[in-house]
Amino acid sequence: MKHVLIAGSGSYIGESLLGWLSRAPERFACTTLDLRDGAWKHFDMTPFDVVVLVAGIAHVRETADNEALYEQV
C-alpha cells in the first residue's frame, strides 16, 4: 500500500485526486494537508511514500494588493 499526502486540501485538483485514489483503498491510503496556516511546518511527512502538491491560486486576478501573495506561491 502506498501512503499519499495531498498537500493543498480543499482544492479542486486535490479533492479530485483524493476521490480517484479512494476508489482503490487496498492500494492507497490518503491524507490531506491544509497549507493555508503554518501548521504544515510542524507536520511529519516522513511516513508518506509520495507528497503531491496541488496548492495554488486560481480565479483570483493579480493586483497590487495581492502581489506579495502571488510571489509567495
Task: Describe the protein.
The protein is an alpha/beta fold and 73 residues long. The protein has 2 helices and 3 strands. It has a 3-stranded parallel β-sheet, covered by helices on one side. Strand 1, helix 1 and strand 2 form a beta-alpha-beta unit. The chain starts with a strand and ends with a helix. The mean pLDDT is 89.
Largest sheet: 3 strands, parallel
Number of helices: 2
**End-to-end CA span:** 31 Å
Count of DSSP strands: 3
Strand content: 15-25%
Mean pLDDT: 89
Q: Sketch the topology as an H/E string, one letter per element.
A: EHEEH
The amount of helix comes to: 10-25%
SSE class: alpha/beta
Radius of gyration: 14 Å
Please tell me what the overall shape is: elongated
List the helices and strands and how they pair.
Blueprint: E1 2-7, H1 12-21, E2 28-33, E3 50-53, H2 67-72
Parallel strand pairs: 1-2, 1-3
Question: What descriptors fit this protein?
Answer:
single chain, 3 strands, alpha/beta, three-stranded parallel sheet, 73 residues
Describe the structure in brief.
The protein is α/β, with parallel strands linked by helices.
